[in-house]
Design a protein that fits this description.
By secondary structure, the protein is an alpha/beta fold. Helices cover 30% and strands 23% of the residues.
Amino acid sequence: MTIQVMKQAIRQRIITDREQLTAAERACLSHAISERIAHLDTYRTANTVLAYMSFGAEFSTDKWVQQALRNDKCVLLPKVNRTTKELDIYHVTNLQHDLAPGQWGIREPLAERCAKMDALQKVDFILLPGVAFGRNGARLGYGGGFYDKLLARIKASNQNCRPALIAGAFAIQLVEDIPQETTDHKVEWVVTENETIQCISNMHIGR
């Protein structure tokens, strides 16, 4: 069985499990996850945060992004560039005014209303989406490679200062033995509704 086949099998299983949660359950769990992320020291000390707008049955990031704006963080959001097949990053200040549904129906910054950020050296904190995560920091995305390419760009531009990589996910998205490739990037923290897992040393804080 190839790595790609193994990854796809995990994707299908976790997406199915995630979609079985009711809207009310997802809202409750998302609130708990957002609270835990907001209490991370790496978040509290960050000036510039790169987030994403959730879709479907994902952990809902709306309230967390709104909180970041209220906390006077510089909030950046991605937009799919259909020409380059990569993510362009924009500075947003108002979710109602600055966003519109883009590719796959995901809310994205409107290029005519938001400033594009070509220099990403000042990003302190990155909240990453994903389908499944391991306690060792392994991340399984949706298969497009958008975020792995983005993280490679940020790493190349941030030789002296590396942003913190955080994932918010439901506990059902924790998976053992996620297959990894050389282009895959691990996260440093996985935050669920039940625990905050520091992947570097596999420590978890607060059950």
